[in-house]
Amino acid sequence: MYILGLESSCDETSAAVVEMSEGVRKIKSNIIASQIDTHRLYGGVVPEIASRAHIEAISRITYEALETAGVKLEDIGLVAVTSHPGLIGALLVGVNFAKSLAYANKIPLVGVNHIKGHIAANYLAFSELEPPFTALVVSGGHTSIYDAENYTSLKEIGGTRDDAAGEAFDKIGRVIGLPYPAGAAMDKLACEGGKNAVALPSPALAGDTLDFSFSGIKTAALNYLNSAKQSGAEVNRADLAASYTEKIVSAIVKKTEAALLRSGSKKLAVAGGVAANSHLRAALEKMCKKQGAEFYVPPISLCGDNAAMIAAAGYYKYLDGKTADTSLNASALD
Q1: Considering only the top CATH level, what class is 2-122+303-319?
Q2: Predicted TM-score of the model (pTM)
Q3: How many CA atoms within 13 Å lie on the side-chain side of 100?
Q4: Which of 104, 201, 314, 317 has the smallest set of CB atoms within 10 Å of its CB?
């Protein structure tokens, strides 16, 4: 089956054609229209601008995805679109386009949870991966640990109580002058500093919980920078980046390891934009080796928002018989 995936939850418009069937998981095309250069002017995503950009791009890249895949619209057996969570205006663009396209061409439609989409990127990268397994989603909007009970059912067993890891990286990166989005630049800068040079609190909450809180480490880093500014001291940006990264990574690894031990799972699948962070990937892989667990993380090209992952998640939802009709709506909430 050829599936047309559509993704517009934040600041990237994406359309993809994925071939899925028993034993087949193949990306035929995965087109992404990025808005990074536009939002960089404002230091972050402006929702209204993002929505307008999605409107301008979505039809063009959809037909580009079909052409690149070498298939026609009549060959498509399913349309899968991100329906939640995300920026409501941005989501509505994708959902309304998908509904119109599916209805006009009599193609089945499914709405996909963006988080499940991120996890499904691993199915495209690893043909052997099957549930159950433990899943870690780390992005600009989410930092959560799940029990993936089957292809469509996720049970959250831990997560952030406030900010997400990706947002924490972007916020401090922006303050120290790194270009938006700051995650990749922070990752690179952290390689040049001392990981214990700056004292910062751990985002891993104490006690019998798998939860995080990233607001404290952000505040501590801001206080450190403000104190240095007031005293006229020079801040070593590499040391701060390294120490900040170390605390965030070690907290995520600590709680993920606890989740594996608690569930007895021997498979960990990681997903989301922050899964591209080299320090996190290395630390999680090391932990999995220690625990004798299989480690899955998609290539960097599938870590960020993309429509191929939405198509893959949509396929399994379709197999469950959970199709949508023209009443499908977008939601900002999970």
Answers
A1: alpha beta
A2: 0.96
A3: 8
A4: 104
